[in-house]
Design goal:
With 326 residues, the protein is mostly beta strands. The chain is 0% helix and 51% strand. It has a domain at 51-173: 7 Propeller (Methylamine Dehydrogenase, Chain H). It contains no helices and 28 strands. The protein has a four-stranded antiparallel β-sheet with strand order 3-2-1-28, with no helix packed on it.
Length: 326
């Protein structure tokens, strides 16, 4: 939990300099924003480089930004003004669709349309491990225990990868071959949510490894959107699930004690597909990125847009936010 985050409802104009808010676009630009003023404080223009920005991730210590750009991943220093990456990870042969930092910043995991998941050593710049997923990877998240990965793919599978055993331990296909677009795991490791191309969400309770019940226990499923689902994300306090869609909305689902998912709010304002979202550390705010070229900051309590970020010239397809302790 953040003691000083994006702001507070009582003092919404307050700017916390420790807030890192970044968006990426098909215009090939990465933009850093002052969360409350809406001013773009830095642009990584990447002039002469080809490839759209697919995903962004901020390291836990707020030092590094990882940008998945077509088939490679650029690592930038956040405190620097340089447009030149300090590391470039090359090795994927297809679009990189997922990127996430290890909690202690030792490694980075990526997933790609080339059907592989790779773990990169941030100290040496080399590949530590390479997993053959067998189908184009759409998303990868790291379990809070830092010892497992959960991936989802175009073939409709959700896989659990055990890093200590170096193998795939589980393969779920909740809707047959319907592609699974996004996966998200609770910060306390209690549940997993996945969303598919038909707008449906599936929820599993994650049991302790010593429990008698199966490790992943299917508990519910629900129709989140009637159109393509692009992202699902559990809030840090595990009280809400945000789902983004081609229907131009973001839906906020409250999570009950017995894993009931109830539609709490519909965030309306974007004019085109909403591609990505990121919660503030205290779960009080949500940032979204859309094909309408705009990113928005929403207040969860009211469901209203409290700031809009204008500047991209094409679809804004990814965002990253880190306003917690570094």
């Amino acid at each position: 939990m953040a003691t000083q985050g994006i702001g507070s409802r009582n003092n919404p104009g307050r700017q916390d300099l420790s807030v890192i808010l970044v968006t990426g676009s098909y215009d090939h630009e990465i933009r850093f924003w002052e969360a409350w003023s809406g001013i773009c404080s830095r642009t990584i223009a990447r002039s002469g480089e080809s490839g759209q920005v697919n995903r962004l991730a901020i390291s836990p210590d707020k030092r590094l930004l990882a940008a998945a750009i077509h088939k490679k991943v650029n690592i930038y220093e956040i405190a620097s003004s340089s447009n030149t990456p300090i590391i470039v990870f090359e090795g994927h042969t297809g679009n990189v669709t997922a990127v996430s930092f290890h909690l202690e910043g030792k490694w980075l995991v990526t997933g790609s349309e080339d059907g592989t998941i790779k773990i990169w050593d941030l100290r040496t710049g080399h590949i530590q491990r390479n997993y053959d997923n067998g189908a184009p990877v759409n998303d990868v998240c790291i379990h809070p225990n830092q010892g497992e990965l959960i991936s989802c793919d175009q073939a409709g599978s959700i896989k659990q990868w055990d890093l200590s055993e170096n193998v795939c331990m589980l393969d779920l296909a909740p809707a047959g071959d319907v592609p699974i677009r996004s996966v998200t795991i609770a910060s306390d490791g209690s549940c997993l949510v996945a969303g598919n191309n038909k707008g449906k969400c599936y929820v599993w309770k994650i049991n302790d490894e010593s429990a008698q019940a199966p490790r992943f226990q299917a508990i519910t499923k629900f129709q989140a959107h009637n159109k393509y689902l692009t992202r699902c994300l559990l809030s840090p306090d595990v009280k809400y699930l945000a789902t983004c869609s081609a229907d131009t909305t973001v839906k906020i689902w409250s999570i009950g004690r017995h894993w009931e998912f109830k539609l709490e709010k519909i965030l309306s304002g974007h004019q085109r597909w909403v591609w990505d979202c990121a919660f503030s550390a205290d779960s009080a705010y949500l940032v979204t990125a859309s094909s309408d070229h705009v990113a928005r900051l929403w207040e969860m309590a009211s469901g209203e847009t409290v700031r809009q970020y204008n500047g991209h010239h094409k679809a804004a397809v990814c965002c990253a936010l880190h306003d917690g302790a570094g």
